[in-house]
């Protein structure tokens, strides 16, 4: 065969009793497999230093190694977590059902992927997208678990911002008509299912057209903003305020009866009266 292979070559002289070289001994070792192993180790080292955080545990879940991105994301160094379990990162946000489902997938599918909230060394709770893979040997025995994760805080913030933009009125910040209709239908369903009541208040601004006609739409917009600000400071945190359209607003008061709703409506009226003076 003319196949070329990498070899480790060594040559040693052999001398007789008169210290004369009589022959040479050549030692040749095929290092193909050794180079392949070294290349795999180099690749593994490069893989460990990606932007993703990486945690490697033994079959018992004890951390054996983390990479530098793990430290950048969590604040924990390799020395901090070596010999410990990954639950050092637990945020407490997930129940046992969540983890049972996770380990069911890891055990039966060999991997799990999903969103999980963890806690940094500083105490800050943050979201991450995590992939956990089970590594087995040739005899199908578990050798390691490898967890790879990315900090998705910025993505979650963007999602929340987009969701807020889609559900709120851009001028006043209250829920828009589509969202308030959806919340109303939810309250109706809940009330029917549990035989509960809820309150509904609809109000508008008297003679609002005159404000726009006499002082301009900018002044009219400012009044709408102040009305919503006043209403929010008067209502309970659980109450739901939405702009129905123009100068019309809707308030949903979960679990309120008619008397409680009337009192809430009167508090709103008085707060608007105070605002006007």
3D structure, described in words:
With 277 residues, this protein is of the alpha+beta class. It is built from nine helices and ten strands. It has a five-stranded antiparallel beta sheet with strand order 4-3-7-6-5. Strands 8-10-9 form a three-stranded antiparallel beta sheet, sandwiched between helices. The chain has a two-stranded antiparallel ribbon with strand order 1-2. The longest helix has 19 residues, at 258-276. It is elongated. The model has no long low-confidence stretch (mean pLDDT 87).
Describe how the helices and strands are arranged.
Blueprint: E1 7-15, E2 21-30, H1 32-48, E3 53-57, E4 63-66, H2 68-74, H3 78-81, H4 96-109, E5 111-119, E6 125-136, E7 142-151, H5 153-167, H6 177-194, E8 198-204, H7 208-215, H8 217-234, E9 240-245, E10 248-254, H9 258-276
Antiparallel strand pairs: 1-2, 3-4, 3-7, 5-6, 6-7, 8-10, 9-10
Helix pairs in contact: 7-8, 8-9
In short:
The protein is of the alpha+beta class and 277 residues long. It has helices at residues 32-48, 68-74, 78-81, 96-109, 153-167, 177-194, 208-215, 217-234, 258-276; strands spanning 7-15, 21-30, 53-57, 63-66, 111-119, 125-136, 142-151, 198-204, 240-245, 248-254.
